[in-house]
Each structure stands twice: as structure tokens, then as C-alpha cells.
Amino acid sequence: MKKFAFTLLVVLLVSCSDGDLQIETIDFDDVAVSNCDNLTEDTQLLFKINDAEALILTLQSNVLKNGVLDGSTVTTESSIPNQSKLVYRVFSDNVSSGYFCDDIPPVTPTVTEEVEAGDGLVTIETTVNADSTAYNHTITLSEITLVNDQGERITDLTINEFGEIATPIN
User: Fold this and answer.
1) 79-119, pLDDT tens digit by residue?
2) How do beta strands 161-168 and 74-80 pair?
3) 29-52 burial by CB neighbour count: b if 16+ within 10 A, else e?
4) Main-chain phi, psi angles of 86, to 5 degrees
């Protein structure tokens, strides 16, 4: 009986496969938010570059709200992928902001993997800075689900705090 149980256990262990799922850690916490040109309330493209990886957030139109009153906080939300878009890209080599900002993107590096968020929420809290010269927008991400082309989830996402940006008070 022991031989049978041992054989059954070995067969189960050998026959189980976890597929090609690769669990990755995506960590952009220590990376500053970048954009092209001057930040305004009309800015939609924000990105974070970490060597050969990038996290790209495309905000829906007019989601950055300028016009906070009397030191209050205005909170705005945007759903992913219905209103805003979040993409994680891996490149063949280190990437620069020119890849996102140049009229004609450079030929290299190339994208080796791209994963778009299929679900999530962007929350933006807007306040006026201490000297009343700019609006501070704190952008957080929650409930983000990144699923690759094979339908596999990328787990252990540490991208909850996307970052803080400031737009000038006109």
C-alpha cells in the first residue's frame, strides 16, 4: 500500500504543470513621474521609466482638475480601461523619455513585452500648494489587473502610488 501511495504521489507531482506563468515584480515606487512638455490640466500622457521598463498612464481628457477652493481637496476617479489606460512595457535596452516625447520615436530600443491593464482605478487628489502657485495632483492606482496575451496575470504589483505632479495656477 505504501508503494502505491508513493507512486501516486510521484505521478501527481510530475504530471502537474504550472504552465508558462511568470510571476514578476513590477516596482516603480522610487521612480519619478515624467511627461512631455509642460504639465497642464490637459496633460494626458504620464510615464515612469525604470531602465528597460516603463509604466505608461494615459489619462482621460480633463481628469486633472484645477480649481480647488479654500485649501480643500478635490478627488477625481477614472476607471481602467474604460476611461484611462495603463500599460507596462519591457524594452530590449534602456529607454529614454525621447521614446515617448519625440515626434518620431527612436528605432531602438524595441518593445519586447507589453501588458495592458484590464481593470483598475486611477484616483487623483488635487490640492493647492503652500504658496498658491500650483495645483498638486497625487495619483494613486488601485485594483490594477495586468494580464498578458496568454491570459496570465502578473502578480505582486507594487504600483499603488503612481506619483505626484503639479500644474500651474493660471
Assistant:
1) 998 999 999 999 999 999 999 999 888 889 999 999 998 88
2) unpaired
3) eebebbbeeebebebeebbbbeee
4) -125, 125
